[in-house]
Amino acid sequence: MHRWPVRVYYEDTDLAGIVYYANYLKYIERARTEWIRALGVDQARLKAEQGLVFAVRRVEADYLSPAVFDDALSVTTEAVRITPARIELAQTVLRGDHVLFAARVVLACLGADMRPRRLPGDLAHIMGS
User: Fold this and answer.
1) Which of 67, 85, 83, 84 is nearest to 75 (CA)?
2) What is the spatial distance between Cα 121 and Cα 49, in angstroms, rounded to a whole number?
3) Please, which residues bridge with residue 13 across strands?
4) Of 69, 104, 71, 63, which is closest to residue 5 (Cα–Cα)?
5) How far apart are CA 79 and CA 57, in angstroms?
6) What value does the CA radius of gyration of the chain take, rounded to a whole number of Å?
7) Which residues belong to the active site?
8) 15 class by beta-carbon count within 10 Å (0-12 exposed, 13-18 middle, 19+ buried)
C-alpha cells in the first residue's frame, strides 16, 4: 500500500470551512500519480514510447467525515484488481487513523487513439505487486 501526505490549505476549503468535496478527487489523483511514480513507471515516457495513458473510467466515493484547514492528511492507494486493460484501486484519505474519504477507482489503459489497450505484461505485474 502506498501512502502520500497532503496538507489542507485555505484554498481547499469552502464557505463552511471544510474541504470542498471535489478537492478529495484532486488529492486521490495526485496520490495515484505518486503511487505510479513510486513503482518506477514514468507516465510521460509510457505515453511517448508506447502511446499509452491512464484515464479514470469510474469513481465510487464515500465522504465519511470532513477535513478542515491545516489538517495533515494522508492518502493511501492500493491495487485491488488488475485486468488486461483496467486497474481497480482502493483509495482512502485519512487524518491519523481516521478514514475521512474512501473511493474505488477504475483506470482504463488507453492508446493514442483513446481506445482501450492491454496493459503491457511487465506493467501489470509491477502494479499488482
Assistant:
1) 67
2) 16
3) 19
4) 71
5) 15
6) 16
7) 14
8) exposed
Q: Report pLDDT digits (tens) over 17-73.
A: 999 999 999 999 999 999 999 999 899 998 998 899 999 999 999 999 999 999 999
User: In the structure grid, which three cell numbers stand for residue 115, read together?
Assistant: 481506445
CB atoms within 10 A of CB 52: 18
With helix as H, strand as E and coil as C, how does the chain read?
Answer: CEEEEEECCHHHECCCCEECHHHHHHHHHHHHHHHHHHCCCCHHHHHHHHCCEEEEEEEEEEECCCCECCCEEEEEEEEEEECCCEEEEEEEEEECCEEEEEEEEEEEEECCCCCECCCCHHHHHHHHC
Q: Cα(25)–Cα(30) distance, rounded to whole angstroms?
A: 9
Mention every residue, 6+ apart, whose C-beta is less than 8 A from residue 103: 24, 28, 59, 60, 61, 62, 90, 91, 92
pLDDT at 9: 97
Q: Which domains are seen in the chain, by residue range?
A: 2-128 (3.10.129.10)
**pTM for this entry:** 0.91
> Across the strands, what pairs with 61?
103
Strand partners, 6: 73
